[in-house]
Design a protein that fits this description.
By secondary structure, the protein is mainly alpha-helical. It has a domain of about 25 residues. Helix content is about 70%, strand content about 0%. It is built from 2 helices and no strands. The longest helix is centred in the middle third of the chain and has 44 residues.
Length: about 80
């Protein structure tokens, strides 16, 4: 395996780019947290509005049968 060598200037540039990327990721995390807070706030408002009416009916979740489901079904038939 070849040994990589960097000059001091190359290392400084690399570190500055990494710091820039970390700052950008930090901003994205802040935005996601803010969005999450807003979604929770609106969900609570919707729940309050819907609680005056009839309770919501959950949707049926259709899922594909897997080989595990098949084996479980065979085990219960015996």
């Amino acid at each position: 395996m070849a040994k990589l060598t960097y000059t001091r200037n190359e290392m400084e540039l690399l570190i500055l780019r990494q710091l820039g990327n970390l700052d950008a990721l930090g901003e994205q995390v802040k935005l996601l947290k803010k969005q999450n807070e807003l979604l929770l706030k609106y969900n609570h408002k919707l729940i309050e509005e819907l609680s005056d009416r009839t309770p919501p009916i959950p949707y049926k979740i259709n899922r594909k049968k897997t080989s595990k489901d098949t084996w479980d079904g065979l085990a219960t038939e015996d």
